[in-house]
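TICKET #2291
ISSUE: user wants both folds in one file
ATTACHMENT 1:
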Amino acid sequence: MNQNFLLQTPLSQELYHICAKDLPLIDFHNHLSVADLANDRRFENITALWVASDPYKHRAMRMCGVPEKYITGDASDFEKFAAWCRVYPRLVGTPLYHWTQMELSRVFGIEELPSENNAKELWDKINALLKLPEFSTNSILAKFNVEYSAPCAALLDDLSIFEGTKNTAPSLRGDDVVAPSKAFLEKLADITKVSVKDMESLKAALSKRLDVFHAMGTRFSDHALDNGFSYLPDDGKNDARLQAILDGNALTEADTIALRSAILVLLGNLYAARGWTMQLHIGAQRFTSSRLRSLAGAAGGFASIGSPTEISSLTSLLDDVEKTDAGLPRVILFPLNPADNAAMAVLSGSYSKDGISGLVQQGPAWWWCDHLTGMYEVFESVSAYSVLSNFVGMTTDSRSILSFVRHDYFRRALCNWIGNKAEAGVFPKDVKALAPMVKAMCYGNAKERLG
């Protein structure tokens, strides 16, 4: 792969090679297998590493008419790999076309692009490499200079497995916290030795559990505000709603929304007290094809972009968290619908805390938008409506260790965009003037959030 891939101007090339290329990676939200990291897994073949757990590839294969048998079905691993190779040449224009080139080149030193004709050759060549010590899970990650990686963990997960990992800490995935079941509340009480019977005791139990996460290095949480998210302010009835769950009763939809809203505020307060960053992933429409959901599971690659966000619900949530004793934590907003970009960027100026830069900000292009077009749109939005130099940088949100090449993809895209702005006279055509911003956006701002 050409060293100046995606870098269209001399200034873009200089910014990338001098300022961005060799910075360490901080990946503050991903779905890597902690067991694979702790056990330093050796992948049995390239399908297990590259295809089996990648819903992006699965989605592209379905769009090209590949039978499900060769995606998540009972075909052999070689057949699945060969099916991916057959599809790849059709993917020009998609981010998968670029990511595949980068993964093969950066990780395996292979410059040939997959096709039906070379599937067996690639299969044999890569599988031979995977037998070498330098291609274990942690050895592959070491190629990316990862300083901090934050795989998701649920509140009640056993965190001891993280003790066997390097440069890794859990990122709290809080979906089951804001929609608690009776079993969840009972297990929370058992683990923390706090009798959960109302919102105050729930807060005490959650606080004890968050302290355990904090001691493990957690500095980021994550909540999904899916398509149709709405917020209801506290009406004083949440103790009764919590008791109804403990009694084994189902809540109405309105009661569910009200309790979720109250728990989000409670958690925001606890995060702020610990100096955490609260990530809000907004607008995914997760239910589309019932058939594919039954075949491939909830994370099978068939979710969609939802409607534009109901901004009043989001701002009411942030406003009520800000009113708590600890105020707002740092917040990263990840809108999935590009129509929300301007609104999310503007919100960065709607909340503040003395001495903190970028308290609330739009995050990197997320999920279906983490391609060149999506990244450029976010850069434009943040630059126009917010403060570009505060931007927190890239995170993979991926299950694959190979996806860490996307940090390099982001850095190349950023340096190219800035270089083109400078060529147009919009930004200063001066490496010394632009270098601090590039370094902050690629590493420094995320590093600062670790404390």
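ATTACHMENT 2:
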Amino acid sequence: MAYELTIFTPTYNRAHTLPRLYQSLCEQDNKGFVWLVVDDGSTDGTQQLIERWRQEGKIDIVYFRQENGGKMRAHNKGVELCQTELFVCIDSDDYLATPHAVADVLDFWDDNADITRRDDISGMVSYRKMTNRPHTQFPDGVQTATLEELYNQGFRGETTLVLKTSILRRYPFPVEEGEKFVTESIVYDLLDQHYKLLVFRHYTQVCEYLADGYSANGMDVMLKNPRGYRRFYNQRVALGKGSVRYDTKMFIALSLFIADGKMFSMASNKWLTLLYFPMGLYQYWKLKRGKW
């Protein structure tokens, strides 16, 4: 069977949450997808669990196990292994919103082929329902937009991105030696520079942030992965995204935290780095005390 969509799940010691996602995949009325699981070195029986599901044969599952290297390395491996036109990441603690989610996505994609075939379209964006956070609706009358345009026009909330695999391969997540995570925005900001997304006003997945997840531990995650986040803030300054003052301040603070002497040599804007250095120094003082 020829598939259009890969549902990719990076996972690490999430055998206790994966059954909910698996059940939502099995309930889909359109099975035109592959579930690609990249196991980032789990030690909780995840491999045996996935193997049992593979033997059940309810959905097509591709399983790949690697040494623990973090979500971004797992994501890059997933894109490398993907063999379908479309790629969507559904985390191991999330699940599909309805039994029609896959059908709705693929039908909408095919129904808008005049748009989706364009070279300036990287994929489609839909709602990601949060179990513990409110969100607004996409702005009226908008058919295609970048993520930045949606948020600038008042949207607040989380999104699901179904992206063209061929485009994702051009933008792998950067990885730093000894680090395991960097915000997804480091890639999404680059995609925004060159592509737009087809706007799909439906819920595709449900997300619940767990107490031990990346999103619930933002400060701790950043300080454990300072080089990746320094690269992210430096890139935002270069692209003119967000608040230049705030991003420069964070770049300075993380450079001081890393203490590798590369702050000015790698700064995308050396004059701003010099101008905001006192603020960055104060931000570094705050980070050292666990404050934003």
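RESOLUTION: both attachments delivered.
EXTRA DETAIL ON ATTACHMENT 2: The longest strand covers residues 196-207.
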